User: What shape does this take?
Amino acid sequence: MNLTQQYLLDAYRAQCRGEPAPPAPGTEEWQLVREWRDRREFDAVVAGRPVRRRRRPARTWRRLLPSRAAHRDGSGRRSGAT
Assistant: This one.
């Protein structure tokens, strides 16, 4: 049974019991990453070490984000815009 099947089974059981559905898989991943980073920074402060945050250069973010050119039609405006 994969993750999606387990989620659907849990959602079905919750609906039958009148309970709220569980969160969908992957919805809380960024929150987990932030909490992990905050905990790491807290541990560094308590241990007396400097807190270091690595910053990505802007060019790295541009590579990770989808291209803006893909969202534009030939007129230079975003597709779907009037």
User: Anything to note?
Assistant: The chain has a mean pLDDT of 79. The chain has three helices and no strands. The CA atoms of residues 45 and 51 lie 7 Å apart.
